[in-house]
Amino acid sequence: MQIVLISGLSGSGKSIALNVLEDAGYYVVDNLPAALLPQLVTHLRGAGWMRVAVAVDMRSGASIAALPSQLEVLRETVSDLRFIFLEARDEALIARFSETRRRHPLAGGEVTVEEAIQRERDALASIAELAHRIDTSDLHPNTLRAWVKDFVHVDESEGLTLMFESFGFKYGIPLDADLVFDVRCLPNPYYDPRLRPLTGCDEPVKEFLRKIPEVGRMAEDIRRFIANWLPSYVRDNRSYLTVAIGCTGGQHRSVYLVEWLAERFRDQASVIVRHRSSARRAADRGAAQVHAPVEDKQP
User: Fold this and answer.
1) pLDDT in tens, 181-203
2) 13: annotated binding-site residue?
3) For the RapZ C-terminal domain, which residue ranges apply (predicted)?
4) Which of 192, 260, 286, 294 has the smallest number of Cβ neighbours within 10 A?
5) Which domains are seen in the chain, by residue range?
6) Is this prediction's pTM over 0.85?
7) 142 phi/psi in degrees, rounded to 5
């Protein structure tokens, strides 16, 4: 039986994640009190459901405090338990509540949206550490849908999921990062007009970076650091470790190094690769096409 738990901050995209799982055939339960998790699992197992997704968050009030202990109980009876925690920066959450005109569940009276977000973030801080965290601040909904699909299909036979994530410092450091490496000191393919529109996944950019000794030394230093400390994270019973590699725009150097590192760790852990800035640019291009004047579109 596979159980996928969804938690996180209000406005961070939990409904999107649940809809993805429901469309994939999961039995979905939203806003369940944590104390009822074991009974729910027992009931659904008896009814023949083998894939279940459950959202547990601050809407259930004080019962959220029982979630860590309920997780321990579930791990003894469920063979495949996965936990996703969605979060976002304050300004992104405030903008979403403003755009949708929805009320934050902890706001009201003299409590502002900003204060409600901080209260919720503080209350869920310890729970976030138990989960695979996804920072949705700059994510297009379609990107979040794809990342949730990738996560639930990961083979967890190795016990730890190792995620390599590229990003651009000009967009901010991802909240979900456990380890952050800054590679802005490396030569930038952006200044070559031929390479500027490409990414670190394209062969011309790879060839450019492979020829630079500093790039090879940086890549090997990061690989060695992760390899040396990965066993310690495993011994600490960590289920997820996110390694974020950042350059200026998240397009060339960080993408190349993420792909290089992921290839070298696939035989040591379950590996996920994400390119935050590439997904952001793709979403921006799609939005530009949707909003372009009809007369500007090519046949």
Assistant:
1) 999 999 999 999 999 999 999 99
2) yes
3) 161-277
4) 294
5) 1-153 (3.40.50.300), 159-288 (no CATH)
6) no
7) -65, -35
